């Protein structure tokens, strides 16, 4: 599990085809990287991936065809900035919200940057995810835990503080960019409960 509080910004070193997916080699950048272990989980732009190789400054992960279909990871080019978060420990502070690292789909940046002195960012969301997005609720965008400020027929808006922009890949994100979205896990479970027990 993750919290959506980004621990560092890394960069894609390269990607190589592997079976039906890709192997990504990622430079850790500012991510604290001591005591890393093979098989541990790291969220890469919000997608929970397993470390299959590592050295002191980089790690490799395998990305399945399903993950490539649902995320932006297959579109990344060498040098692309990546939000990184290592899996939380039971003793960690829980500063964001419950993030599984299971990306639900891709959105698009509709507006980025300052408006009347405030950083209001707008994102388009797929229609099938919009019912899970609520004003004042939580959403994960490229691995970042954010609070929804507005919801409309196209998607949603958030307000970013300068610290978030400076310490995430949002510093290099532009209008038109594709982003990974994970909706609030609680909303999904609530919907399932309301549907009853029929499979």
UniProtKB/TrEMBL annotation:
Which regions does the record annotate with the repeat Lumazine-binding? 1-97, 98-194
The Lumazine-binding domain, residue ranges: 1-97, 98-194
Under Enzyme Commission nomenclature, its number is: 2.5.1.9
Give the pathway: Cofactor biosynthesis; riboflavin biosynthesis; riboflavin from 2-hydroxy-3-oxobutyl phosphate and 5-amino-6-(D-ribitylamino)uracil: step 2/2
What does the annotation say about its assembly with partners?
A: Homotrimer.
Query: What are the alphabetically sorted keywords of the record?
Result: Repeat, Riboflavin biosynthesis, Transferase
Its GO biological process annotations read: riboflavin biosynthetic process
**What reaction(s) does this enzyme catalyze?**
2 6,7-dimethyl-8-(1-D-ribityl)lumazine + H(+) = 5-amino-6-(D-ribitylamino)uracil + riboflavin
Name of protein: Riboflavin synthase
InterPro entries, from UniProt?
ATP_synth_asu-like_sf, Lumazine-bd, Lumazine-bd_dom, Riboflavin_synthase-like_b-brl
Could you state a single Gene Ontology molecular function term? riboflavin synthase activity
What does the function comment of this entry state? Catalyzes the dismutation of two molecules of 6,7-dimethyl-8-ribityllumazine, resulting in the formation of riboflavin and 5-amino-6-(D-ribitylamino)uracil.
Which first-to-last residue range defines the signal peptide? none
The scientific name of the source species is Solilutibacter silvestris
